[in-house]
From TrEMBL:
Species of the source: Coemansia pectinata
Compositionally skewed regions (Basic residues) per UniProt: 1148-1164
Pfam families on file: PDS5
GO cellular component: chromatin; nucleus
Residue numbers spanned by region Disordered: 1129-1202
Gene that produces this protein: PDS5
Annotated Low complexity bias: 1192-1202
Gene3D superfamilies: Leucine-rich Repeat Variant (1.25.10.10)
Broad class of the protein's primary localization: nucleus
Name this polypeptide is given: Sister chromatid cohesion protein pds5
Coiled-coil parts of chain: 28-55
Keyword rRNA-binding listed: no
């Protein structure tokens, strides 16, 4: 309004043209001046008060083509701003016709297209134009035009084209406002507009100009109700069109129209690309503007059921990502879609199932609450029939970030199923499962370390699952487990201090089950074996470098290197490549590489040094021979002593001494280190032999510390540090301690340099009180004396005659004494025997250890005969020296005597020769003792370990096959594993028969002398003894050696037994029985039995060749009862025949289910009751280590000795 209250009028009358026709504008400078003045006055006018009649002249002038299409862009900008103001002032009506409005808006669009040039002097004019259009809602005029689609499409193209991330926010908001008006005002939205909007959601557009993507997202969210039907129609058109093209392509292929099919293939590929693009847009819209997909989600649900696999796959993946994005809300809103999507887990196509499992597992990460519904379905896919589905399932689980919600969402059944996949038949699945489990464990370790009960229940079993894989005995699995052990499980590379490393090792080890611990130690022993082989290999490499010519022995070295390369390569998955690389490594002759590898496996180096040598030597190797790096790097990693390392020892000892949660685990690890890598303990011997650790009130802790000391002293003889305090404490244990304290202390004293006088004094004290029947400490004294007898022979020799006679006549021959044991029990521990029983056990040990401690030249015939005679009597009489006595006492004496005879057999040739054939047969029958603890302990902890370690003669091998009637399957499996994995690989010379092949004749000899053989009942006897030979055949016989075994069995008829001719006749029967069973096996397995080309000889200690006259007199009739063959032929499935119980082993008892005693120490798992088997100091023997290795194949749990 004017000051007097009247309407505002435009006072300026611009002169814009040089003539009345308005075809030529005035000069540029004057035109700018006029337009600027006009724009300023129009800007000042208000819509409500303006007199629009005063605008008529200007309104018409501004539409002149000479202005709208002026060559100066600035002129057009001023004109556009003026027209925008006129439209504002005339609103809501426009002073122009439809064609004029169309022309005006085209000018507007042209000006807005230049908004991207913010440096232009006319940028403020264009910004003003944008603001005016947005504020006044001028674009609404476009919707009234009869052909508005073109203008609207131009607006969208232009405005999306000028948006950039660097633009001021207010400009982008004004553009959004205009675009929103252009969608809201028209009755329909042009398809081109939808295309432009959706274009902004493509991946490339998002990367090139994220501002346009944001603008499109804001626009779609602001106009959701408008866009829904258009977006649905867009996707429907694309999907239907693409699907029809694909159906046509498949029809052409089905009709055999190859030429047209090839032409349609390109179209089919294009249609698939269109489908992928469309589904990608759906995903992006779901992220940015999910409201626009109201009708698209049901459309995706329909796609889940189409016949086209590619479309089902795309739909499954897209919906999976949508559920991950919106989760519970989307699933609740579209319950039918959620249910149908879950059903795709059972799709007939593995590709769809793979897509489903990938996204189902990703829901753990993005929507933990929703994913809980999927646990059982994920377990189902972990067991899918297709290995690729299983592999992807395992891989996807390994990619999860284990936040607290994710941990809570994953079910225990999923963890168990993932653990089962570690044993999958497909290597790729196994590998992914192992990696996934280890990765998960690494992420949840903090909760496990804190002892959280929920975490322990769900994740605590992961290390056990992984280490149980050792029982599969597959090089590929073993290499993978060793890799993740040093990686994700222990993660030492990311832990910088040794104390924390030790803590992590203890957390892992403490969580292991008994079988998993055996698996862990088996991996450590595998590493030790490879280290041993590698050490010899390096020595030969260096020797070859020093003497390369054959004349200097190089030829023999080359052969040995090849053999070692084969043995080392057998421990890794790709044997051929590793073997070839090792051969090339041997020819490098590079001292730096060899030194680096040797230092890597040196137990004297700490973790930091090991890693340093690994890196430096591999770097050197990559420079010399890059092709060897990939294949030999696993060897460097395998032999690197980082899991068990010297740097961890002080902290392990600290845990043992300080008690706490991990004391039991630390004790076991220290025990292992002392037995396998004692050099690691040398630098920590002061902490280990700390006297204060022996002066604690906890008796069990004292005994366990003494055990650790003993193991160390055994590993490094004469290594016990001598000090007055330690001597006094150990002597006090010998004089006043309990049995274990006295025994261990006595051994430690013998391992001190310069402690001979103390040994003599203590030995004298014990001997002087031997005949004191009322001495309360008789058993501890005897235990200590057994140590002095073996390890301080000079101190004991003074009293040896007196002691030996006393022990035999006054102790072992003593009448029965009432003991504390319960005769109703099948077996009791040694402690439950009572003082008299324990004393007899140690009397037996003293006698044996006396012989073991003497030099060969110091042995006397009388002494050897006295000891051997006593042991023989105990073994052959079931542990009794005379009638009567406790059953439990006899069991322990039998077990002790049998173990002592094996010790003597392993002590040297002179003792081995002193044991006769009857001794070997008697020891074999211990394997069939009615008491489970006696036979299993003797077999698994004494006989088998000694055979595997090659400490005793091969004539003891047949005894292990007498377990054919063992009622405990685990024991038989232990034997089978030891035979197949260890004994079958032992050959006296390369190329000769293995020791188990060679022993078939000895086995038949043992059977011929078995007390169950009844010549009066030939048929039952054959049926009774056939299972022994069958068990042997099942353990030993292969296609490669069946001819050899058949020939060995037949060769027996050319020999006779030394001694009883009755035994020879039995041998001939067993010879034909063995051949019959071998032939039966070969027929069942389709193996050929050929003539063996080599010459065979039978053991001369039990066989002698038949004289020619006896050969000629050999009856032609078969020795094998034909009735046996007839009955055998009638019985189907030879391997499933029922077994008759042998007479002598008819009372064989099964293993007791209830343990006799359990460990009382808090935090320590109870061991099986084999502490009595040779608790005397098998910590000083090597049996335990090998016994654990023998056990690896089975489910039996033979315990360690104390």
């Amino acid at each position: 309004m004017t000051e007097d209250g009247g309407p505002q009028r435009l006072s300026f009358e611009p002169k814009l043209f040089a003539n009345v026709a308005q075809k030529k504008a005035i000069p540029i400078a004057e035109l700018y001046k006029q337009l600027k003045k006009l724009s300023k006055e129009l800007n000042g006018l208000e819509q409500e008060t303006v007199d629009t009649q005063s605008l008529d002249s200007v309104t018409r002038q501004l539409l002149a083509p000479s202005l709208l299409r002026h060559k100066e862009s600035g002129v057009v900008a001023y004109v556009a701003c003026c027209i925008a103001d006129i439209l504002r002032l005339y609103a809501p009506e426009a002073p122009y016709s439809d064609d004029e409005i169309k022309a005006v808006f085209n000018v507007f669009i042209d000006q807005l297209q230049m908004l991207g040039d913010s440096n232009s002097q006319f940028f403020p004019l264009r910004e003003y134009l944008l603001t005016s259009l947005a504020t006044v809602r001028t674009p609404a005029l476009v919707a009234m035009l009869p052909d508005s689609e073109e203008i609207i499409s131009r607006f969208f193209t232009a405005l999306f084209g000028v948006v950039s991330p660097s633009q001021p926010h207010n400009i982008q908001m004004q553009i959004l406002d205009i675009l929103q008006q252009l969608l809201e005002e028209p009755k329909t939205v042009p398809q081109d507009v939808i295309d432009v909007i959706l274009l902004q959601f493509t991946k490339r557009r998002q990367q090139d100009n994220p501002a346009t993507h944001q603008l499109a997202s804001d626009l779609a969210n602001a106009t959701t109700d408008i866009l829904q039907k258009y977006i649905y129609q867009y996707f429907n058109d694309v999907i239907v069109s693409a699907a029809q093209q694909r159906v046509g392509q498949r029809q052409l292929e089905a009709d055999g129209q190859q030429q047209r099919a090839r032409g349609g293939a390109a179209a089919g590929n294009d249609s698939l690309d269109d489908l992928k693009s469309a589904h990608y847009l759906i995903l992006e819209l779901n992220k940015s503007a999910p409201g626009t997909l109201l009708n698209v989600v049901p459309q995706l649900e329909e796609e889940l059921g189409v016949d086209d696999v590619d479309i089902r796959t795309l739909a499954t993946g897209v919906l999976g990502e949508m559920f991950a994005e919106k989760g519970f809300t989307l699933a609740k809103r579209y319950e039918s879609t959620w249910k149908t999507w879950k059903g795709r887990r059972a799709d007939t196509s593995a590709v769809v199932r793979i897509q489903w499992i990938e996204h189902a597992i990703s829901l753990y990460q993005h929507q933990p609450q929703l994913s809980r519904e999927l646990n059982e379905y994920i377990v189902e896919k972990l067991c899918d029939i297709d290995d690729k589905v299983r592999q992807v399932a395992c891989h996807s689980l390994g990619l999860l970030e284990m936040s607290a919600p994710v941990q809570a969402a994953i079910g225990e059944n999923v963890v168990r199923a993932l653990g089962d996949r570690c044993k999958d038949r497909k290597p790729a699945v196994r590998s992914e499962a192992i990696i996934a489990l280890a990765t998960i464990y690494s992420q949840v370790f903090e909760e496990l370390e804190q002892g959280a009960a929920a975490a322990q229940a769900k994740w605590g079993s992961i290390p056990s699952t992984i280490f149980m894989l050792r029982y599969i005995n597959d090089p590929d699995i073993d290499s993978k487990v060793e890799s993740i052990l040093t990686g994700a499980i222990l993660n030492f590379a990311k832990i910088k201090d040794d104390r924390s490393r030790c803590q992590r090792l203890l957390v892992v080890f403490d969580s292991l089950t008994a079988k998993a611990r055996s698996g862990f130690f088996s991996y450590m022993r595998r590493q030790q074996d490879i280290i041993r082989l590698t050490d010899v290999f390096l020595a030969l490499c260096e020797k070859q470098g020093d003497s390369p010519s054959a004349d200097n022995g190089g030829g023999a070295v080359d052969q040995q290197l090849r053999m070692l390369a084969v043995k080392i390569a057998a421990c890794f998955p790709d044997k051929a490549k590793v073997e070839s690389s090792l051969s090339q490594l041997a020819n490098l002759h590079d001292a730096e590489v060899y030194k680096g590898l040797r230092e890597t496996m040196d137990p004297k180096n700490d973790i930091k040094a090991v890693r340093k040598y690994q890196k430096s030597s591999l770097k050197r190797l990559s420079g010399l021979a890059p092709s060897l790096l990939d294949t030999t790097a696993p060897l460097w990693k395998c032999v690197g002593l980082t899991t068990i390392n010297r740097a961890l020892v002080p902290f392990l000892i600290e845990h043992v001494s300080g008690g706490g949660r991990f004391v039991a685990a630390a004790e076991v690890l220290i025990s292992y280190i002392t037995s396998v890598f004692p050099e690691m303990l040398r630098s920590s011997s002061a902490e280990l032999f700390d006297v204060t650790a022996l002066q604690v009130a906890d008796m069990t802790a004292t005994e366990e510390r003494l055990v650790l000391m003993v193991r160390f002293a055994k590993a490094i003889p004469k290594s016990v540090p001598r000090s007055t305090e330690l001597e006094n404490q150990l002597a006090a244990f010998v004089r006043t301690g309990n049995l274990k304290q006295a025994k261990y202390a006595a051994y430690l004293i013998t391992q001190m340099d310069g402690a001979q006088s103390l040994c003599a004094a203590l030995t004298g004290d014990v001997v002087d009180n031997l005949d004191n029947r009322h001495l309360e400490r008789r058993a501890p004294s005897f235990a200590a004396l057994s140590r002095f007898a073996q390890y301080a022979p000079n101190a004991f020799s003074t009293y040896s005659d007196r002691v030996s006679q006393f022990l035999v006549q006054s102790v072992l021959m003593a009448g029965p004494v009432d003991d504390r044991s319960d005769e109703t029990e099948d077996w009791v521990s040694r402690e439950a025997l009572g003082e008299a029983g324990v004393t007899k056990v140690y009397a037996t040990k003293i006698l044996t250890n006396w012989l073991l401690g003497l030099e060969r030249q110091a042995l006397t015939r009388d002494g050897v005969q006295l000891v051997l005679g006593t042991l023989r009597q105990l073994v052959r009489n079931g542990g009794a020296m005379q009638e009567g006595g406790s059953v439990h006492e006899r069991q322990h004496l039998l077990l002790t005597a049998a173990g002592c005879m094996l010790k003597l057999a392993a002590a040297g040739p002179h003792f081995e020769k002193a044991l006769n054939t009857v001794d070997v047969l008697s020891l074999g029958l211990v394997v069939q003792n009615p008491c489970y603890e006696v036979r299993s302990t003797f077999l698994l902890n004494k006989l088998l370990p000694a055979l595997v370690a090659q400490r005793i003669h091969v004539r003891f091998i047949p005894a292990v096959f007498l377990v054919a009637y063992e009622p405990e399957p685990a024991v038989r499996e232990n034997v089978r594993h030891a035979v197949e994995q260890r004994l079958a690989l032992m050959r006296p010379t390369p190329g000769s028969p293995s020791v188990v092949e060679d022993c078939i004749c000895r086995l038949l000899y043992v059977l011929a002398n078995h007390p169950d053989w009844d010549d009066a009942q030939p048929l039952p006897t054959l049926e009774l003894f056939a299972p022994y030979i069958e068990f042997y055949i099942n353990c030993v016989c292969l296609a490669q050696n069946v001819s050899l075994l058949f020939c060995y069995a037949g060769e027996i008829k050319a020999y006779r037994s030394k001694g009883d001719p009755v035994v020879s006749h039995r041998l001939y029967i067993l010879s034909e029985l063995a051949q019959y069973l071998l032939r039966e096996k070969s027929l069942a397995a389709n193996w050929p039995v050929n003539v063996y080309p080599g010459r065979l000889t039978l053991p001369a200690d039990i066989f002698e060749p038949l004289p020619e006259a006896d050969k000629a007199a050999m009856p032609r009739a078969p020795f094998l009862d034909p009735e046996f063959v007839t009955r055998r032929a009638k019985t189907p499935a030879a391997g499933k025949r029922s077994r008759a119980k042998p007479v002598g082993v008819g009372k064989i008892g099964k293993r007791r289910q209830k343990p006799v005693a359990a460990s009382k120490r808090k935090g320590k798992a109870p061991a099986n009751d084999h502490s009595d088997e040779d608790e005397d100091m098998e910590v000083v023997d090597d049996d335990d280590e090998v016994a654990e290795d023998v056990e690896m194949s089975s489910v039996a749990e033979t315990s360690d000795e104390d």
